[in-house]
Amino acid sequence: MSILNRSTGLLAALFVAGISAAQTTAITGATVHTAGPAGKIENATVVIRDGNIAAIGAGIAIPAGSTEIKAAGKIVTPGLITPFGQIGLVEVHAVEGTVDYVQRGDQFSASFDPADAYNPRSTLIATNRIEGITHAIIAPQAQEPDEFGNQSRILSGLASVVRLSDEDYIVERGAAFVANLGETGGALAAGSRAAALLVLRTALDDARDYARNVEAYEQGNRREYSLSRNDLRALQELLDGSKPLLVSAHRASDISTAIRLADEYEFDLIVMGGAEAWMVADELAAAGASVILDTLANLPDTFEQLNARLDAAAILARAGVRFAIGGDGASQNHNARNITQAAGIAVANGLPWDAALRALTLAPAEMYGVAGRIGSLEAGKRADLVIWNEDPLELTSYPEQVFMAGEAVPMESRQTLLRDRYMDRSSGKPPAFR
Amino acid sequence: MKRITILAGVVWIALTGCDRAGEAGKDEARSSAPYASRYQPLPSGATLLTGATILTGAGERLDEADILVRDGKIVQVGKGLAADDAEVVDAAGMWITPGIIDVHSHLGVYPSPGVMAHADGNEISAPNTAEVWAEHSVWPQDPGFVAALAGGITTLQILPGSANLFGGRSVTVKNVPGRSVQDMKFPGAPYGLKMACGENPKRVYGEGKGVAPSTRMGSVAGYRKAWIAARDYRDKMEKADNGDGEAPTRDLQLETLAGVLDGDILVHNHCYRADEMAVMIDVAQEFGYNISAFHHAVEAYKIPDLLAENNICAAVWADWWGFKMEAFDGIRENAAIVADAGACAIVHSDDQRGIQRLNQETAKIIGAAARVDIDIPPEHAIQWITQNPARSLGIADSVGTLESGRMADIAVWDGDPFSVYSRVERVYIDGALVFDREDASVNPVTDFSLGTAAMTGGAE
């Protein structure tokens, strides 16, 4: 039994037509949520040519010779972006050989770039892609010391934007630097949050000094630095303001500290976690800082989350803070697909629906500096989009078809293969023979 | 059959024999057992909720229907009900379900904040700790209880962790924070025994401590040795009761295992892989006990026929997968395939966040099942988080369905509970209003949460 046999006419039509990037395709009749300036467009036409959106709007003529996909009654959104995680850097968390997001030891810090380990054929990719996730931010993660006492660094490396696709999958390499403050940072430093901050400052000061004295450094005539040459060079893109620093922090006071640091060194700030970000929402807004918000946080998991609350997203939105939704373990990596649930929960707790969709699309694209290419449905952007049967934030909804660069991707994953094998008992043979 | 032992001046009444939970004499005896429930329902009058969509938990859906509760019990569910003495609550547009039941929680034993000082869920000192009781670890001030209440949870089973082959006894509680666990303990609920197969015991002992088990076969040998010892212990006790020989010294570990063999204690078995569940069914058959539920059961969809034949529930997450090897084959349709084959499906949490939205976890399964043409109407889906967990906990005569005479444990939702946008509006436990989204003064606040956002919005 194949899922295709049971599917709607929409899917069958797509595969008969053999939609590919080289053709012109027109998706007609759907309600399109662009997440861009055009907002919501009823009965829209989306014209896709050469993998990009050629035109989008109501009442647009369907170009001659194009393949029409009738999607009346359906919802179209940009492909969703999971704003922080390790997709493609892990297969099974407890199987060490599959884990590539951790770097321990003194050798590297800011320059550690896990995108070099990215596996575009990971089982996590199709599993999440068929649920509407087309892009992911992949990042290093600090972890406890290994058996030899090696531990992760305060500056743990680079985060990159990837497309969940077999080819042309790096959208932006090193889109942000990642640092650990709060409890994690304190544990990685000498036990205190203040020590973590000192480590960070020292790194930035060293990088600045290095830039001014490259020649002397290369000749061995400069004082010792806290970081390697690779790290010092990498950090120039933070100091010149071209890349943001993503800082993990929950406690309001830790977030305020990060804001002060960003102001002092003049870089853009992304706060990851942000359980108490709502308490300093105005400060964040004034600083133009962004937040990756775990919208399910409402318990004091740690002492830095004592004031976590389910309406945090609504409060941040009212204050004008840009935020993406994700970063909770249950809506990350293997289950990045659950960011729609996380967004729906935020809506149930007061966040406007449009703001929730933006938090899954354009907002993360903006904070990682790739909004010119992905994150909304606008002419000129890549046609990475999803046709949903119903409201994408609803738990019972699902994508009927996902497009990557205008191409209809197979709606199949290792999980659908397992499902179909075990649902098919018609042959009477053991599963391995089905 | 009862055995009376004089122990340190205390009259100890323990039970052997085959009488099952709920049978005559049982509850009376249990109430005089040590660590007995001191649960007292909160004061309540009569309440009539009208005009709601009611999912009874027994498989029915009633539209524009009413429910009348009085003295902590459900009086009637139906249309056009009236009662002069009742407070009438207009519930038009609302949905009413039985209070949600989580068969797998570690609230209280792994509470928030999750600091080492609070980590009381795994007695990682030996692979068989059948002698420990989860209730002796429960911290009733865990803010998770209140958050779960806001998600409609009225009853939960708190289990020891899964490090051990035999983790110890579980406790089933009513979700009303008390000063001690005894204030929460579900009156008359049978104990459970937590067992675990798979990766955890061999990792903790073989890999971590260099003692058995270091393999799955080592684990199975460990179960079998323990059951042999338990059988001997039980036989000697029985003989002594009949005047044949001296009773062995009381052994807490063997007492719990013997309770399983006698059918008094229900087995809740953490087990992911299909092949391991099949082996555990064989172990149960060798020693003549029943498995109430496989917990986590990530691969239950591979053996729904075996589960149905053996009357074992599969308690599962909606979509957790890939965090360890034995979870690699997880699929969202798992519970749907189990239910479709006529076996008992349960959606559980094992998580302080998941327990706040078992309805949503269930909804994701409904959506996944719809894609493969398995239709799960809400009146059936709700059974996965009400009636079925009640069955597996041995308390289905008291809770899990909205039927006359049952405890009035009720969740009132502001819409279809399987929509992400719906929230719990009210919760009643034994007829008493214990959560009201519109009136924070009704809601409990744990000591730990005083002065935090949980006071003003954390549970909202």
Describe what this molecule looks like in 3D.
The complex is a heterodimer of chains A (434) and B (460). Chain A is of the alpha/beta class and 434 residues long. Chain A has helices at 3-6, 9-17, 123-129, 182-188, 193-212, 214-218, 229-234, 236-239, 252-265, 281-287, 312-319, 339-348, 353-359, 362-367, 414-423; strands at 24-33, 40-49, 52-58, 67-70, 75-78, 80-85, 133-138, 155-163, 170-180, 245-249, 269-273, 290-293, 322-325, 385-388, 399-404, 407-408. In chain A, the strands form two sheets. In chain A, strands 1, 2, 3, 4, 5, 14, 15 and 16 form an eight-stranded mixed β-sheet that branches. In chain A, strand 10 (245-249), helix 9 and strand 11 form a beta-alpha-beta unit. The longest helix of chain A has 20 residues, at 193-212. By secondary structure, chain B is an alpha/beta fold. Chain B has eleven helices and 19 strands. In chain B, strands 3, 4, 5, 6, 7, 17, 18 and 19 form an eight-stranded mixed β-sheet that branches. A six-stranded mixed β-sheet of chain B has the order 10-12-13-14-15-16. The longest helix of chain B has 26 residues, at 216-241. The chains are: A alpha/beta (434), B alpha/beta (460).
What is the number of E strands of chain A?
16
Uncertain segments of chain B of ≥5 residues (pLDDT<50)?
1-32
Low-pLDDT segments of chain A: 1-9
Shape of chain B: globular
Q: What's the rounded overall pLDDT mean of chain B?
A: 92
Q: What is the number of helical segments of chain B per DSSP (H or I, 4+ residues)?
A: 11
Largest interface: A-B, 49 and 57 residues
Helices and strands of chain B: which structural class? alpha/beta
- Counting DSSP E segments of at least 2 residues, the number of strands of chain B comes to 19
Distance between the termini of chain B: 50 Å
Our estimate of the beta-strand percent of chain A is 15-25%
Helix segment tally of chain A: 15
